[in-house]
C-alpha cells in the first residue's frame, strides 16, 4: 500500500506567486496600519489597490517593495521569504515609482541620470560610469512615456506630471519582474493623466511587461487591461479579486464610507455620490 501523499501545505509560494501575504499586520506604536492581510498577486496580473486616505495602501505597497517588514504574518516576494532574504538583492528585481522617491532626487540631477542610475540602485549620480546600453535603455524608457525631450533637463525644474513620468521611466529601467506604482497620476492635469493611463494601458497589454500593482484614490485612473482589484478601508480588505467582480457601487461605497454610484464605460470607470 502506498503512503498517503504529503498533505499540501499553504506555507510556500509556488513559482507563479509574485506577491504572497498571509495574515499580515503592520503596527506602529498603538496604530494598526494594516491588519490581517491575505493577498496573492500572480505572474502577469495587473492589480489596482484603491481606498481612502489612510486606508493602508502605501503600507501595503511598501511591504510588496521589500521596504517594510510585517509586524506579524508572512510575506513572500518573487518566491523569497521576507526576513530570510537579502532585501537589497530582492529590491533589484522590483521597480517602485512613488512621489516620495521623487522628493529624494537632488534638484540638479539630470532627467537622463535619474533614469539610468536605477540600474545601479542609487539616486543621484556619483561615480558610476554608464555605457551605451544604459543610455539606450534610459532613452527608450523616456520615449515610451513621451518624456525623451526632458532628458537634458534638471529634475528640480520639472512639473509634477513630468516628474511622475521620469520616475516611471526609472522604475522600468531595470526591466523589473514586479512594478509597483504609488499614485502615479497624482498632481497630473487631465491631459497628463490621460497620457499616463494610455502608457499604463499599453504596458498592461504587453505580454513581456512586468506584473503590476498600482495604488490610487481615483477610479478614473484605472487603466483598461488591469485585471484585478483590491479595495481597502482602515487597514483591512473590503473586497479583492477580478476587477469586474470587485468594482461595484456597493464595494466602493463600503470602502469610502459613503453612498457612491460607480459607472463604467469602455473599460474606464467613474464614480459620484448618490
Ligand atoms: N510610522 C507610523 N506611525 C504611526 N502611524 C502611521 C505611520 N505610518 C503610517 N501611519 C498611519 O497608518 C495609516 C495608513 O497609512 P498609509 O500611508 O499606508 O495610508 P494610505 O492609504 O496610503 O493613505 P493616503 O491615501 O493618504 O496616501 C494612516 O492612518 C497613517 O496615519
TrEMBL record:
Protein name: Iron complex transport system ATP-binding protein
UniProt keywords, alphabetically: ATP-binding, Nucleotide-binding
Signal peptide segment: none
GO terms of molecular function: ATP binding; ATP hydrolysis activity
Domain ABC transporter: residue ranges: 19-259
Domain of life: Bacteria
PROSITE patterns (alphabetical): ABC_TRANSPORTER_2
Pfam families: ABC_tran
SUPFAM superfamilies: P-loop containing nucleoside triphosphate hydrolases
InterPro entries reported for this sequence: AAA+_ATPase, ABC_transporter-like_ATP-bd, P-loop_NTPase
